[in-house]
Amino acid sequence: MTPPAGSAGPPDIVARARGLPGLVTAVVHPCDVPSLEAAIVARERGLIAPILIGPEERIRAAAQAGGLDLSGCVIDPVPYSHAAAARGVQLVRRAEAEAIMKGSLHTDELMAEIVKAESGLRTARRISHVFVMQVPALERLLLVTDGAVNIDPSLEVKADIVRNAIDLARALGIREPRVAILSAVETVTSKLRSTLDAAALCKMAERGQIAGGILDGPLAFDNAVSLAAARTKGIASEVAGRADILVAPDLEAGNILAKQLEYFAGALAGGVVLGARVPVILSSRSDPLESRVLSCAVAVLFAHSRRGADA
């Protein structure tokens, strides 16, 4: 997809984040070239101050293989990936790190440490994942949630998924994000639970249980992002055709939607997990370098907004 004539494209999140102090980040088990390179490049661009946690010999071997300069990087040696995940969480709990970044370990292994009831990083908010998409054909950011953490979320979990996404959107400069609760149709029917959840979420927003954004749903994808489709279907809404946040009915739908935007629409996708004490920079093994750097920039902007809120 190419941008329309005269389009400026989506906002440059990395450029915006570079004007802020770098985020001290626990980089968990960066033992391959892609994950280590992302941390090094993000440091070079002033986004993060990485603490590289893992087997030192493997980190140095990855640096040598990728021609990466470790000068100025702190290496915190631990023997294996599980210990690295535990150390990353420990550094946050000690206020020695402001974010966690996934390296070359499995997501489940990292998240298991983060969600531990006693020693993890849980808050009262449910943890969820948000893709931040820079779609060339759009002049705005598009957030997609949840495509990585919550498999089949209940209504209560979806409410927190929406709250997390609204908080992130506002941190990215979207003052009152428009939130589309997606389903296959735009009418409420008992045959599709996602439509009932969408209607309930909108009522929760109306009653002040979800704040900071404008919700509408159920909306099908076409009338969530296309004004022409919304008009054709007779949908009068502040959200339809102009959504900033797309809330998928489940993980499969969210993951497929985000990857379709990435591979078919040329979107650059950053990914963060929210709802923990600090943002978690979560990348897929197939993510290109610029996607990983974008994820770091998103975490910087979110953490900076939290500092302001806590001040």
| Order of SSEs | HEHEHEHEHEEHEHEHHEHEEH
Could you give the count of β-strands? 11
Question: How many H/I helices?
Answer: 11
Q: Which fold name fills CATH's third level, the topology of the domain at 124-275?
A: Isopropylmalate Dehydrogenase
Mean pLDDT: 94
Task: Characterise this structure.
The protein has 311 residues and is an alpha/beta fold. The chain has a domain at 124-275: Isopropylmalate Dehydrogenase. It has eleven helices and eleven strands. The protein has an eleven-stranded mixed beta sheet, sandwiched between helices. A hairpin with a 7-residue loop joins β5 and β6 (142-145). α2 packs across α11 (289-310) and α4 packs parallel to α5 (107-114). The radius of gyration is 19 Å and the shape is globular. The termini are far apart.
Structure at a glance:
With 311 residues, this protein is an alpha/beta fold.
Descriptive tags:
alpha/beta, globular, 11 helices, eleven-stranded mixed sheet, single chain, Isopropylmalate Dehydrogenase, 311 residues
Topology of helices and strands:
Blueprint: H1 13-17, E1 23-28, H2 33-44, E2 48-54, H3 56-66, E3 74-77, H4 81-93, E4 99-102, H5 107-114, E5 128-134, E6 142-145, H6 155-171, E7 178-182, H7 193-206, E8 214-219, H8 221-225, H9 227-232, E9 245-247, H10 251-264, E10 268-274, E11 280-281, H11 289-310
Parallel strand pairs: 1-2, 1-4, 2-3, 4-11, 6-9, 7-8, 7-9
Antiparallel strand pairs: 5-6, 5-10, 10-11
Helix pairs in contact: 2-3, 2-11, 4-5
